[in-house]
């Protein structure tokens, strides 16, 4: 058993190392729903957060308390009231919220204080610091509904949070804010986490939620043919939100997605929706290549998009050197113009730095990824992986089961990303007829 463990642990731990190096000294804001705590997931989440912090990540933790407040309200004979997806906080609800916040803060601080031998928290020594980092204002009256003590974030004490993070402490924020006159306001965890992340210019905003993420086809039920969309470009996320009805419940598709989009629009490069029901969801999302939930990614710095006829010249200029050295098969301008809608490109400041073509074979349930090219000036920056992700998304959107490539020089790059060699006889009949047996290209397949 020890030998098997060593055989699997060593390569796995080495594969995690690049992510440890990459995220060290970055700032993550993590929003945990009250439902996660009510479901008994706090201990595991705290252990993972302590481990993440030990690997050099600066953490701000924002907790929710929706079910805890509702439970206390019902115990006092009051039904929770909501409108526009926001709690209506009267005097009784405000008292319940304050009690719930105090209790949850105590539980979270106690969980981080554990250090029993032979547990993940042994020698962790996580310092948790909370405070009045938020200034709030009332929601007011909306469409005739008086939200009373429900509030919105007016200001975030960015300097105070940064000083605390620089002292190597974890910042804990409850969804409460105070006005300059000392009035308390009940805030939404999602809004607090989003505002804190954007004001801090955090590297990631992560929501641990009741939902597993956003499915490839959000309006269809869970199935093997409708998996979680692990990477959603900001433009696609905006488009999806515009098609959805206004979200009011946490289980609505757009409920957490709207906050992820807002964060990305205001400087947070990546925001995530993760299921708290999966043990180790934070670790799986941060340190495993494919992740587990949905990541909304801002691509303002580099535009990843489908090609247009205006891109033909840029694509030819990009692939021409690779055609000359035999890495790519020669394609003439007419062929590229004819197939231009099959191409995906990465553009930096008006210059195309990467491209890939997508040729589906629906009758065989597969598609070819061809003409995969990244400029030597941007190789090693992840552009190739972004192109692969987008082509995978296009294949999944068509309900295809696999993606294949033909290559003579870059086998190892594809194998590292989940492709496996197969015999050319595996190819769909239409593609097999065009296979160049003299070139002897290796056929690699990735099952989606």
Report on this structure.
By secondary structure, the chain is α/β, with parallel strands linked by helices. The chain is built from 15 helices and 23 strands. α4 (about 65-75) packs across α5. The chain is elongated.
Notable characteristics:
seven-stranded mixed β-sheet; 448 residues; alpha/beta; 38% helix; 23 strands
| Largest sheet features | 8 strands, mixed
Based on DSSP secondary structure assignment, what is the total number of beta strands? 23
- From the alpha carbons, calculate the radius of gyration and give it in angstroms: 25 Å
Uncertain runs are: none
Write the topology of this structure:
Blueprint lengths: L1 H22 L3 E6 L1 H5 L3 H13 L3 E6 L2 H10 L6 E2 L2 E2 L3 H23 L14 E3 L3 E5 L2 E2 L2 E2 L4 E6 L1 H9 L3 E4 L2 E3 L5 E3 L2 H12 L3 E6 L21 E3 H10 L9 H13 L4 E6 L5 H7 L6 E4 L5 E4 L5 H13 L8 H6 L4 E6 L2 E11 L4 E9 L8 H15 L4 E6 L3 H6 L3 E3 L6 H4 L9 E6 L1
Parallel strand pairs: 1-2, 1-13, 2-10, 5-10, 13-15, 14-16, 20-21
Antiparallel strand pairs: 3-4, 6-9, 7-8, 11-12, 15-16, 17-18, 18-19, 19-20, 21-23, 22-23
Helix pairs in contact: 4-5, 7-9, 8-9
Report a brief summary of the structure.
This protein is of the alpha/beta class and 448 residues long. Helix content is 38%, strand content 24%.
């Amino acid at each position: 058993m020890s030998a098997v463990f060593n055989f699997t642990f060593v390569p796995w731990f080495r594969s995690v190392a690049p992510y440890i190096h990459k995220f060290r000294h970055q700032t993550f804001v993590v929003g945990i729903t009250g439902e996660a705590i009510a479901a008994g997931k706090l201990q595991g989440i705290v252990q993972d957060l302590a481990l993440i912090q030990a690997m050099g990540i600066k953490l701000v933790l924002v907790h929710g308390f929706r079910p805890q407040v509702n439970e206390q309200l019902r115990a006092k004979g009051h039904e929770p009231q909501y409108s526009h997806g926001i709690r209506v906080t009267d005097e009784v609800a405000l008292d319940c919220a304050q009690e719930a916040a105090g209790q949850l803060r105590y539980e979270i601080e106690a969980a981080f204080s554990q250090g029993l031998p032979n547990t993940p928290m042994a020698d962790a020594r996580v310092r948790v610091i909370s405070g009045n980092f938020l200034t709030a204002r009332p929601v007011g009256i909306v469409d005739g509904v008086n939200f009373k003590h429900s509030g919105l974030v007016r200001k975030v004490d960015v300097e105070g949070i940064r000083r605390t993070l620089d002292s190597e402490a974890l910042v804990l924020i409850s969804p409460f804010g105070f006005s300059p006159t000392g009035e308390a306001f009940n805030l939404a965890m999602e809004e607090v986490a989003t505002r804190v992340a954007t004001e801090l210019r955090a590297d990631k905003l992560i929501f641990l939620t009741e939902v597993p993420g956003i499915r490839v086809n959000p309006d269809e039920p869970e199935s093997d043919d409708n998996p979680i969309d692990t990477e959603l470009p900001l433009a696609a996320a905006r488009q999806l939100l515009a098609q959805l009805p206004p979200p009011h419940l946490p289980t609505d598709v757009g409920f957490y997605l709207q906050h992820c989009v807002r964060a990305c629009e205001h400087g947070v490069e990546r925001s995530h929706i993760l299921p708290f029901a999966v043990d180790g969801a934070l670790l799986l999302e941060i340190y495993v290549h494919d992740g587990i939930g949905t990541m909304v990614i801002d691509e303002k710095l580099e535009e990843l998009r489908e090609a247009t006829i205006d891109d033909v010249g840029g694509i030819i200029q990009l692939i021409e050197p690779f055609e000359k050295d035999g890495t790519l098969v020669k394609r003439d301008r007419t062929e590229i113009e004819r197939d231009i809608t099959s191409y995906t490109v990465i553009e930096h400041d008006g210059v195309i730095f990467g491209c890939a073509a997508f040729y589906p074979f629906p009758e065989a349930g597969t598609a070819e990824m061809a003409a995969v090219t990244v400029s030597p000036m941007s190789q090693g920056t992840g552009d190739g992986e972004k192109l692969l992700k987008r082509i995978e998304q296009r294949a999944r959107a068509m309900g295809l089961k696999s993606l294949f490539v033909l290559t003579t020089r870059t086998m190892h790059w594809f194998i590292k990303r989940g492709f496996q060699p197969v015999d050319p006889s595996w190819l769909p009949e239409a593609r097999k007829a065009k296979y160049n047996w003299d070139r002897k290209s290796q056929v690699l397949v990735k099952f989606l």
